[in-house]
Amino acid sequence: GHFFYHKGEEVGYVLEGVISIKTENGKFSASSGDLVCLRTETPQWWKNDADIPARMLWIKIRGGI
């Protein structure tokens, strides 16, 4: 798993596998083909609950200060 507090808006695209994502709004699952959007200053964690690797593409949309 991974926990981080980012500064800036980000978009993640799940290339393969399934990940769990937690934000202040709850816990969600994202699988191959899903798009994840994170707002500025949103604390969250993600982890791969499966036995197979998960791959994602993360794009930073706008940076914070």
Q: Main sheet, how many strands, which sense, barrel?
A: 4 strands, antiparallel
How many helices? The count is 0
Morphology call: globular
**On the 0-100 scale, what is the average pLDDT?**
81
Low-confidence segments: none
Helicity, as a percent range? under 10%
Total strands: the figure is 7
Q: Which structural class do the helices and strands define?
A: mainly beta
Quote the distance from N terminus to C terminus. 26 Å
What can you see in these coordinates?
With 65 residues, this protein is mostly beta strands. It is 0% helix and 66% strand. It contains no helices and seven strands. The chain has strands spanning 2-5, 8-16, 18-23, 26-31, 35-38, 43-47, 55-63. The strands form two sheets. The chain has a four-stranded antiparallel sheet, with no helix packed on it. It has a three-stranded antiparallel sheet with strand order 5-2-7, with no helix packed on it. A hairpin with a 2-residue loop joins strand 3 and strand 4.
Question: Could you name the key traits of this structure?
Answer:
65 residues, mainly beta, three-stranded antiparallel beta sheet
Which secondary structure elements does this structure contain, and how are they paired or packed?
Layout lengths: L1 E4 L2 E9 L1 E6 L2 E6 L3 E4 L4 E5 L7 E9 L2
Antiparallel strand pairs: 1-6, 2-5, 2-7, 3-4, 3-6
In short:
This protein is mostly beta strands and 65 residues long.
